[in-house]
Design brief:
436 residues, alpha+beta, DNA polymerase, domain 1, three-stranded antiparallel sheet
């Protein structure tokens, strides 16, 4: 029994949850000793039902234990994806099965079930995570060995995107939201009017007229429509979408993944040494935790344009909310810019469609066409290098400065103070300095 007095009317109960391979849990209880003892016995009994017995452990118990140990170590964004795969897909299918009896055929049947029309990259991610869970269980001695042989696991190779922008296409994309007339034509083309609904019960209500008087009549309301093309609200929406252009330009200049630049904070910018440290959660397990770029040329210009902040405040923020950009809003702005710039035809293959990640492909393509060495390109993009020679190559941020200048020049982002910096009408931003 483990009931310890922690003060007047306070007790701490402690019990083992999950059997010999479980964890000890503590709980603060207010009341009498007898009440604390009853709660301890009840919690201990419920924990015994969840006991993990070697050889009798289910896949669901392994999943719970894995998330308890590893989930706190993951970045918030990647943690949510892992939990969605484990709890939303793997556990509902394999949760009640004994882990020791899982076979490769069970997993193949799971992927071939009706309705499993998903991308190859998703299947590969699920396969890798499932093997991680089983290897984790073997390391924790919850099972004797991993019952699924890696050699029998199906291999799903994701198809590679082949589309990258040239400098002229990028210029069209970057300036697509500058012309109010083009924007109004777009709004008029996508605006659809819904049906007119008449409320008979409101037929005797007084309706205010334009002259300020009232009259009796039927209340009518039209649903649908959206913003009027020439309205101030529509113009404000265009400016909000246009403000995402700086973020897209920063993605191109830094060659970052979307999540990496979204999570960039002011504490990662060191103006004394002139560097920007960008976390790489995707390659952390492979030994590359961060990439450091020089704060020069167009990168410095784009960061200087953002409202000032300190500490853990995000560098790139939505000017409407003053908070971190959301992926849906950025995706919408990018799709509209692509449409207005006429960069895609009526029928485009899935892998030829332009998405935000195409900017990273564009940066790699421009650097390769400029004959930048593969070692420098890998260091700039944060790719893992597997050649023996690459282990003996140690680059400094200053070595990557020409790459920043090359991408900035090709993208048409001039250094601060030149004519290229002058912007037209912009959406007012919240420039209040955030504190820690």
């Amino acid at each position: 029994m483990s009931v310890r007095r922690a003060g007047p009317g306070k007790f701490v109960i402690r019990y083992l949850d999950g059997g010999k391979k479980g964890v000890y849990r503590s709980q603060l209880v207010y009341g009498t000793f007898a009440e604390a003892k009853r709660l301890h016995d009840r919690q201990k009994g419920e924990a015994a039902k969840r006991a993990i017995l070697p050889g009798r452990v289910t896949f669901g118990q392994i999943a719970d234990r894995y998330l308890e140990v590893h989930a706190p170590k993951l970045s918030p964004r990647w943690r949510s994806q892992v939990e969605a795969i484990v709890r939303g897909k793997l556990v509902p299918r394999f949760g009640t099965l004994l882990a020791q009896r899982l076979k490769s055929a069970d997993i193949v049947r799971y992927w071939h079930d009706e309705g499993r029309n998903v991308k190859a990259s998703v299947l590969g991610r699920e396969a890798a995570l499932l093997m991680k869970l089983l290897n984790f269980a073997e390391g924790e001695e919850l099972i004797d060995r991993n019952p699924v042989s890696s050699s029998k696991m199906p291999r799903y190779k994701a198809k590679v995107r082949t589309r990258a922008l040239d400098s002229e296409e990028w210029t069209r994309l970057r300036t697509a939201l500058d012309d109010p007339k083009v924007w109004e034509e777009h709004r008029a083309s996508v605006r659809t009017l819904g049906q007119v609904v008449v409320n008979p019960a409101a037929a005797l209500q007084r309706i205010r007229t334009r002259g300020g008087g009232t009259r009796r009549g039927t209340v009518e309301r039209r649903y649908g429509g959206g913003l009027l093309p020439g309205s101030p609200a529509s113009h404000k929406l265009r400016l909000r979408m246009r403000s995402a252009t700086d973020f897209f330009a920063a993605l191109l200049v830094t060659a970052c993944r979307l999540s990496e630049l979204l999570d960039l904070r002011w504490s990662s910018i060191d103006r004394r040494s002139g560097t920007v440290s960008i976390s790489l959660p995707k390659t952390t397990a492979k030994g590359i935790r961060v990439k450091v770029l020089p704060l020069v040329s167009g990168l410095k210009t784009l960061i200087d344009r953002q409202p000032a902040g300190v500490g853990d405040a995000f560098v790139f923020r939505d000017p409407e909310t003053g908070k971190q950009w959301t992926v849906p809003r950025l995706t919408r702005a990018f799709k509209i810019a692509v449409k207005l710039a006429s960069l895609e035809g009526a029928q485009v293959l899935a892998l030829d469609r332009l998405v935000i990640h195409s900017l990273r492909h564009t940066a790699e393509t421009w650097l390769a066409r400029a004959d930048i060495s593969e070692a420098k390109r890998n260091a700039y993009l944060g790719h893992t290098e597997r050649s023996i020679a690459s282990r003996y190559t140690h680059l400094l941020p200053a070595d990557l400065a020409p790459l920043v200048e090359l991408l900035s020049t090709t993208a048409g982002i001039e250094p601060e103070g030149t004519a290229g910096d002058v912007a037209g009408d912009v959406l007012p931003v919240r420039a209040n300095r955030e504190t820690l």
